[in-house]
Amino acid sequence: xxxxxxxxxxxxxxxxxxxxxxxxxxxxxxxxxxxxxxxxxxxxxxxxxxxxxxxxxxxxxxxxxxxxxxxxxxxxxxxxxxxxxxxxxxxxxxxxxxxxxxxxxxxxxxxxxxxxxxxxxxxxxxxxxxxxxxxxxxxxxxxxxxxxxxxxxxxxxxxxxxxxxxxxxxxxxxxxxxxxxxxxxxxxxxxxxxxxxxxxxxxxxxxxxxxxxxxxxxxxxxxxxxxxxxxxxxxxxxxxxxxxxxxxxxxxxxxxxxxxxxxxxx
Amino acid sequence: xxxxxxxxxxxxxxxxxxxxxxxxxxxxxxxxxxxxxxxxxxxxxxxxxxxxxxxxxxxxxxxxxxxxxxxxxxxxxxxxxxxxxxxxxxxxxxxxxxxxxxxxxxxxxxxxxxxxxxxxxxxxxxxxxxxxxxxxxxxxxxxxxxxxxxxxxxxxxxxxxxxxxxxxxxxxxxxxxxxxxxxxxxxxxxxxxxxxxxxxxxxxxxxxxxxxxxxxxxxxxxxxxxxxxxxxxxxxxxxxxxxxxxxxxxxxxxxxxxxxxxxxxx
Lengths: 266, 266
Prior knowledge:
Radius of gyration of chain A: 18 Å
Largest sheet of chain A: 6 strands, parallel
Largest interface: A-B, 31 and 31 residues
CATH class of the largest domain in chain A: Alpha Beta
Number of domains of chain A: 2
CATH architecture of the largest domain in chain A: 3-Layer(aba) Sandwich
Strand order of the largest sheet of chain A: 4-3-1-2-9-10
Low-confidence stretches of chain A: none
Shape of chain A: globular
Mean pLDDT of chain A: 95
Oligomer: homodimer
CATH topology of the largest domain in chain A: Rossmann fold
């Protein structure tokens, strides 16, 4: 029983969808969120630099008392989870495993699609973990480097977004997948667009809820629950306040963002 | 007369077009190029963080003996040129002034368009400098946040790129501009695309050549010419070697990239 916060980090603000899902299922828990906005995006950077950034951020969250850390960034989960786990003493949860479990649970024809950043897809983490769980699965992966800028630009619909989605989704149509993993925290905002450009029966797997469920279980199993009776708080730390910060943050959070601190490290 | 190198920096690799233009016009000069690939892009970040990064990079180029520094990044030129000038003792050249001069020289109807990153357009540097030179000029500016990812993705043509360009270029058609400043080092690669989506009589202003001419003049005026009779070298320093590094570098350089060192600072 402790009131220490749950630490969450992402390269930017997309991980706020995970923060929101966790606070929904665990309303008495406080959350500290770290968005590395001075160095985003991670998706086109090297494994070496992503590991370096992730370790520094984990240290920061620990210094703020985090009792558990969620790597809400798919790219950092794919490339730095093991290093962060070796580096700190609190439990670390990435977004890949919960997404993999949800996808395996959802598929009926054992044909799963994965979309993500260039770095995430190159890491083959989703593919390897799905096949390690069930070698009879077929996995088709597709990097979608224009999706993050589309979301940041706010082009969640319209002819251009549809055309881009149509190109990226083409392999999943020809390969007849029935389940598509949204392997980036930005992509859930594109759900209506993706549904309009692909067979509507395809299950879209957003890891925010599976991650929240995993945290719920872990917090209970490890007896790390908050003993507070009031609602938890959300404190945000970011490395750069850029011009559209609030607009984008509130798009992911689906509500106002209040407690924001800029931190300067590296 | 000295063989010290010309220092050039950019958030990424786009400034290699400037390096190439300088080496073409000043073949005996050596160039050291710094691309901040671990923190790119700058175009969606805050003025404060862009200044911080620029000062650190200028210090690095000075430590490598740079006799003159070119800020090849439009965003850093717009937001950090003054700070860098105050901070170091060698001459500093940005890409905005040469672009402004070339645009004013090119326009006949005094209606100039400017495209750039969100941060460059928000800074109003192009607009203010054009109007400071000639208050009778009309300037129409448009941020184009999807153009950098389009170039990095290699989508320099095709239906999607055309549609995106068409949306961004719309204001320049209705406002009847006759000159368009390409206010980002990535954009010259989009010249054929832009020409296909806009009145082909519009002059496209790419600052690489005007910057190279300015450096040529400065080097001669300040008597900083190299006394070497052999061709100069190009040494690249980058903060992260990402997966598509060589492909993208060679796209800008229009040739092979040889001498590359990864540096780790911040």
